[in-house]
Automatic annotation (TrEMBL), chains A, B:
This is 2-oxo-4-hydroxy-4-carboxy-5-ureidoimidazoline decarboxylase. Coiled coil: none annotated. It comes from Ramlibacter algicola. NCBIfam families: hydantase, UHCUDC. Residues 9-170 form the Oxo-4-hydroxy-4-carboxy-5-ureidoimidazoline decarboxylase domain. The keyword Metal-binding applies. Its EC number is 4.1.1.97.
């Protein structure tokens, strides 16, 4: 018989502890401490409480918790001494069916890992979704994590402990994150379409108007129709637009969506999650036979990443009249113009048709977008959702420091004009200065001494600067300080420096009313409200120019890795995003 | 009538000042102040005194001195208002015969230079040797110096002022640095031989046993014979060995020399100066009909730079039995083995013949080597010669820092594991730590974020370390501190680092007795004795393993640039090196 939240809230302390027995491996103290916070509004709230107990327990007890876990395919498994939960997990992960080679490799890794970190390797190895890993993937993850620094690995092990507890909790309560799983499955299907060369290697790459891109659009169109949208169509730039009418068709609509193109060898969730979360909401409304007072217009943007053509935000830009006519004549690496690519895809390829996509902002309530975080913050804080306060403004520069190349042996330290050390000094300043703001970021991503030799003092050093902040004035102050420091470093070191602006984007602060709707929605789930800036650019930046907007972030696994096949999230987290979105839809009229 | 040093020393102060009038452009105060130090033992001593007066005069008067100079091909030249000295110099440099384009370009440069630095461009434009520049070279030098930082350029301008005064002084005294000019001319002739591809472009490249290399050897052989050596021969590795016997043929010989191969696109003086200075000495002894009690054995080493084969110090190594037998089978870029190259050059190409080159150290007094400094120290100190205290020991490492690549926008500053910033922190430490020793040097010459992107936090950073010090314990302490700091940085930043030792060379401290012979020789010229370590490796390092050695450095022009066509010295400085060498030969028996 599955447990209910009501039962748990009503039970005596001892009984409640017994009900939660086995969630954390051989560590009942965690559930016991969390239960003091009853009653719980949701399982999400209970999970947060237990994670908080572990966080507050201190390093010593955390280590004890980690050490309470069995080795993967270790002695305890072989000797049938696992807890019932671990037995099920390791069996379902196929670890009892290891080949002798796999078994040997895992034993080697277990020994090396334990010697390095002092606790056994903990990995959430069972799914069905979000954590269902093959034996080969388990070994690859094991090898990767063995290279982590101790503090990083300890945090990653603890996150896996929480993920195991989450899955075990679902078992106890007999719940499944069904909307989350529906989205998960839809995104798995969508990821089957990939550009040639990537498709064969199992990598995901969908660039503008390729065959894979058009197949993905067709899939989105089908999924929208199946979900019960009233109108679905592909527009003149390839956006897939689905409309679910409100009770009053004349009322202003909520605009929402994200992009379905990807970077090369990218992740399955970047962009696409922001299409399928609202699609799942419509599917849920339709299932309940409900309509909102306002209509919902979901746009799957055809292009955001600027991979095939240098035309980022093409899809969302078209909605605000920001399509650059020169783009039609731009050629891809194979010499195909964008106009030709459009016509080949059955689109008109005319400016007239594209300009007609421009939306009248007065017809819309605003724009909201759900997106995977693409960063480590939520993952590290054990939080499934984050509310975006602003999409950071940014600038990028390509620079070169020029000093004097000289003999590394014969040039005394005080006679050098070392271009690379000048840039090194700047790199440390950028790090310090950005950290001082708390929410600014500054990066030197390209750093290279051209033609460098071991025994030559660098005469030149090429580097880039990427500086971002939640507001334009904060960004501009950061930029001014960085360049003032660069000038001072150059003057002191006898080095000069060229700089070329390659990108400038204004910040897009969230609209206060829409941000607060997201906050109330998250709060209603019993999940802590965490506000954060978005460091990456998103389609919402474009809509920001013409209407109010606010975004919701969903936690990424694997330390928030993005633009990478390791990008991942869980069906549970997606489920929470769908629930938050539904709450927002139900309270569109509130303020 | 040419002036003599005796006249100058004997003259009244007013008369002496009149005799030196015009040395420094419109600035008689310099010679006047220097004359207080009379009597002078040599013109070199007088020049040092005048340079010291300028150095001690302070920034304000130095600026006045610079501003006392006319512009190059400027209004004063056009209006016939130059001093007689400047008129001669600018005319001989061909500046009065500029094309309209050249004239226009020089006026542009004059304006830009004056605007940037606040004084006119000063360049020693007349020769005949060491400073004879074509108009194209003058313009190229002008353009290069315009890019200098103000303090660097001010020092470079002052050095040119001193060089102009030196040439004017020779005019007054009717002296020519005749041995220096002989060496200068011989090295110009030697530089005509260059490997294919470099020869056509006027660049100097002579790698082991190429046709150009063998032509260079033949030239050295001829020059030795012409100078009057008793025995001259090419040995089994291509070294050219010249012997000038002493009065007692059984007495121990002084071994000396340097290498005649070059790096690709190298300089005319690196190595070769150390062959031709002793050859000039023998030439001078022969002209005087003199023999020393001890014999002199000058070896022009065939290979030091390791360019065609990875076999550095092959020539000097053969003399101490350090020829690696595996080298004979090593292939060059065209697939030719060293044995084949030797046989093609008419050498036996057998280990037996090569092993026979090993010298019996008991037959030698020791080894001395003259070499261009290959660094900026003497040039900046206005000193023509330096006495080497030790050839630095060094180590080289190839390293890679590995952190975690992440999104530059979404990864907060305190969540990063930026491999490049870790290396930046190390670079600043290396700079600080090496400077702390005073005479250690540390360089990160290769620095690269592989596959770096503007918007990605660097996950990897490749770099090299080149660490050198005058003694092995000092070097080892430096290395230990650098790696301790690297470990600390890595631990703090969650980064790990690989390191691979690619080179380790022991320090070769100069023999006290031989170093002191060089010091006495330099002192005898009225030139300050300046002791310094050698940052670069030299053939003397090899001989150091079996016999006492000490080296003499000669100032390089152009801020000491080396391994570059800009490497340069002057006939005056070479003259002083020859005179110092002759002094050393005359005092071989002293202690």
């Amino acid at each position: 018989m599955a447990l209910t939240l009501h039962q748990l809230n009503a039970a005596s302390p001892a009984e409640a502890a017994r009900l939660l027995d086995g969630l954390y491996e051989n560590s009942p103290w965690i559930a016991q401490a969390a239960l003091a916070q009853r009653p719980f509004r949701s399982l999400a709230q209970l999970k947060q409480q237990m994670a908080a107990v572990v966080r507050d327990a201190g390093a010593e007890r955390q280590l004890t918790l980690l050490r309470a876990h069995p080795e993967l395919a270790g002695k305890a498994m072989v000797g049938d001494q696992l807890t019932p939960e671990s037995t099920g997990e390791q069996t379902r992960a196929g670890l009892t069916a290891c080949t002798p080679e796999e078994f040997g490799r895992i034993q080697e890794l277990n020994a090396a890992y334990n010697a390095k970190f002092g606790f056994p390797f903990v990995l959430a190895v069972r799914g069905p979704r979000g954590t269902g890993l093959s034996r080969a993937e388990i070994i690859a993850t094991f090898e990767r994590r063995l290279e982590n620094p101790p503090d990083v690995e300890r945090a990653e092990a603890l996150r896996n402990v929480h993920r195991i507890a989450e899955v075990r909790l679902q078992d106890k309560f007999g719940t499944t994150p069904s909307e989350g799983e529906w989205v998960w499955d839809a995104l798995e299907r969508l990821a089957k379409h990939s550009d040639p060369g990537f498709a064969e290697s199992g990598q995901l790459t969908v660039t503008y108007l390729t065959d894979a891109h058009r197949a993905a659009a067709a899939q989105v169109e089908r999924d929208m129709r199946d979900a019960g949208f009233d109108e679905v169509a592909v527009d003149a730039v390839g956006n897939v637009v689905g409309i679910y009418h409100g009770t009053d068709r004349a009322a202003r609509r909520l605009l929402t969506g994200s992009h379905y193109d990807t970077v090369r060898n990218g992740g399955k969730y970047d962009g696409r999650l922001g299409i399928y979360v609202p699609v799942a909401c419509v599917r849920s409304l339709v299932a309940q036979g409900r309509r909102l007072p306002h209509g919902l217009e979901v746009v799957a943007f055809a292009e955001e990443e600027g991979q095939r053509y240098k035309a980022t935000f093409l899809g969302s830009g078209a909605l605000i009249g920001a399509f650059d006519p020169a783009w039609l004549d731009q050629r891809d690496a194979d010499g195909t113009t964008m106009r030709e690519a459009m016509q080949h895809a059955g689109l008109p390829g005319t400016l007239e048709a594209i300009h007609a996509l421009r939306r009248d902002p007065s017809r819309y309530l605003g724009f909201v977008e759900v997106h995977i975080e693409q960063g480590p913050v939520l993952n590290e804080l054990d939080l499934p959702l984050g509310i975006v306060t602003s999409i950071n403004g940014g600038v990028r520069y390509a620079c070169e420091a020029i000093g004097m190349a000289s003999h590394a042996g014969t040039t005394p330290m005080d006679r050098r004009r070392d271009a690379a050390v000048a840039v090194a000094e700047l790199a440390l300043y950028v790090e310090r200065r950005a950290a001082q703001d708390g929410d600014s970021v500054g990066t030197i991503g390209i750093l290279n001494v051209p033609g460098g030799s071991t025994n030559v003092v660098p005469g030149r050093c090429q580097f880039t600067l990427d500086l971002r902040a939640p507001t334009d004035p904060q960004r501009d102050a950061l930029v001014a300080d960085v360049f003032a420091e660069l000038d001072a470093i150059c003057a002191r070191r006898g080095v000069r420096c060229t700089r070329e602006l390659t990108m400038r984007a204004a910040a897009a602060p969230s609209d206060a009313a829409w941000q607060s709707r997201w906050e109330r929605a998250v709060e209603s789930l019993g999940v802590p409200v965490h506000r954060m800036p978005s460091g990456a650019g998103h389609d919402a930046m474009k809509l920001h120019e013409v209407m109010p907007q606010a975004m919701l972030f969903v936690r990424g696994q694997n330390a928030g890795i993005s633009h990478n096949p390791l990008e991942s999230t869980t069906a549970d987290d997606i489920q929470l995003a769908v629930e938050a979105y539904l709450h927002l839809l139900d309270h569109l009229a509130d303020d």
